[in-house]
Amino acid sequence: MGFGRLGAQGVPAAVALNTTLDEIAQVTSRWITPTQRLRRNLLYLTRSRTGYTFMQDCGIRMDRRMITAWLAEERIPSPEQQRRLEDAFRLLRRRNMAPSMTRRLNARGGTRVEIYPVDQSGVDDKHRRTARWRRKNIYRWDPIVAAWSRSDLRELTHRWHDVIADLDSDWRMYEHVTHLGFWA
């Protein structure tokens, strides 16, 4: 039986971990408009030669006049180009933030993570399992941040399993979660 077939709601923990690390590193923000996001991405990517390399790797053709028009807001990139700009920004920002994120999360003996289990409000009483939120200290963030910086969800899933394996016999209850909170 697969996750959610009985009405539980949540996301894979690796996705939640990825999202939370993105928020801490300011890769994503819920509070900015699409226009502000586009401007932020363009400014970040055009500050260095590496940014241009990442744009090229994500399939954005390197026409200086077009990028200047985007920055001056004379033209707007197509939705596909905006998605590619977002991908290039995310990859570059993660790569640049990985060393400081590792130091920050490893500082003072690690970082505490609050694990909020899946929402079971849509599950029949006879199928509900008692799952409480848990706190877990993670002492070694290097492999987790390295997988995050490469956008490697498979490796993040593997690293998450290493983290939750020692919780108790119900560790599989925390493979899917509603949210992960960090004390970082």
Brief overview, please?
By secondary structure, the protein is α+β, with helices and mostly antiparallel strands.
Could you explain how this protein is built, in words?
This protein has helices at residues 13-24, 34-45, 49-57, 64-71, 79-106, 142-149, 153-164, and strands at residues 11-12, 111-117, 134-138, 176-182. The chain has 184 residues and is an alpha+beta fold. α1 packs across α7 (153-164). The mean pLDDT is 85. It has seven helices and four strands, in the order βαααααββααβ. The chain is 48% helix and 11% strand.
- How much helix, percentage-wise, in residues? 40-55%
Distance between the termini: 36 Å
Low-pLDDT sequence parts: none
Number of domains: 2
Morphology = elongated
- Taking all Cα atoms into account, the compactness measure Rg is 19 Å
Order of helices and strands: EHHHHHEEHHE
Count of β-strands: 4
The strands making up the biggest β-sheet line up spatially as 1-4-2-3
Which range does the strand content fall in? 5-15%
By helix and strand content, what is the structural category?
alpha+beta
Mean pLDDT: 85
Oligomeric state, counting identical vs distinct chains = single chain
Q: Supply the number of helical segments.
A: 7
Largest beta sheet, briefly?
A: 4 strands, antiparallel
